[in-house]
Specification:
With 258 residues, the chain is an alpha/beta fold. It has helices at residues 13-18, 47-53, 71-74, 77-84, 99-102, 114-119, 172-176, 202-212, 224-229, 231-242; strands spanning 2-8, 23-30, 37-41, 63-66, 94-97, 122-125, 131-133, 136-141, 152-157, 160-164, 181-190, 200-201, 216-220, 246-248, 254-257. A hairpin with a 2-residue loop joins strand 7 and strand 8.
């Protein structure tokens, strides 16, 4: 069984600044009996606090993934690395990130210092090749974002593929990279008819879901305008347009995939 815990469903500058919704990322737990594995994805501001509030012990985390070098996705990554490695005393776990996150590109990053990078067992840039984490296989997927090294994630599990889409503009090619996913997690920052560069709107999400055809589409990463528009109403519209079951994530929401 896979369990997803949404430690935050806010995104973008002002929803993050005002903490209108939490911004702690997504915690994925694989309960495969032989090799259970716990991964924290995009731990933004408040990730450590919201992990504790949701009964998650950060010292038991096995891997941290940061899809790109923007604060709402990385701010708590270092302190969670500290927890995972027991204050750097135990060389443990994976730290995976975009090139901007771990090396820096142009005037972006790096956002995780070499001190924390050296404390983990494996530190790798997510770019082209798949990586095995316990019984999970993480494959990078494309994105069009202001951080040019942003990557999405196809996470292959024993119960199917979990698609975690990073911040991106919409294109049919990008949506097509997530086909065959059972669960599609979409960062829908803006509501209908409120497009901005490098982010998805509700209109984009409906087309995205129709291309991927998952069993379940979960929208998250809501900006202020999306919250004003009511994410649950927007999710119902996406479901009507795409014919794909769609729900709006809420802070602390847990989904089990079996």
């Amino acid at each position: 069984m896979i369990k997803l815990t949404f430690l935050g469903t806010g995104g973008g500058r002002f929803a993050t600044l005002y903490q209108t919704r939490a911004t702690g990322g997504v915690y994925l737990e694989d309960f495969t009996p032989e090799k259970p594995f716990r991964v924290h994805i995009d731990p933004g501001p408040g990730a450590l606090v919201h992990a504790g509030r949701n009964g998650i012990n950060p010292t038991q985390t096995d891997g941290i993934i940061v899809t790109h070098c923007h604060p709402d996705h990385y701010v708590d990554a270092e302190i969670l690395t500290e927890a995972m490695t027991m204050g750097g005393r135990r060389k443990k776990g994976f730290l995976l990130g975009s090139r901007s996150t771990l090396e820096g590109v142009e005037n972006i990053g790096p956002c995780i210092s070499r001190y924390f990078q050296k404390n983990v067992e494996t530190c790798m840039i997510i770019e082209k090749t798949s990586m095995k984490l316990g019984e999970l296989v993480v494959t990078p997927a494309p994105a069009i974002h202001s951080d040019p090294t942003t990557v999405g994630l196809r996470i292959s599990t024993n119960t199917g593929i979990i698609a975690y889409v990073a911040d991106t503009e919409f294109s049919k090619e990008i949506a097509g990279a997530y086909r065959n996913a059972r669960v599609l997690i979409l960062p829908v920052t803006r509501p209908r008819a409120a497009k901005i560069p490098y982010h998805l709107t509700t209109d984009d999400a409906a087309e995205f879901a129709a291309i991927v055809k998952p069993e379940l589409c979960i929208i998250t990463h809501f900006g202020l305008k999306m919250l004003e528009a009511d994410p649950e109403a927007e999710a119902r519209w996406i479901e009507q347009q795409s014919k794909v079951k769609c729900i709006a994530a809420s802070d602390g929401m847990k989904i089990e995939v079996d």
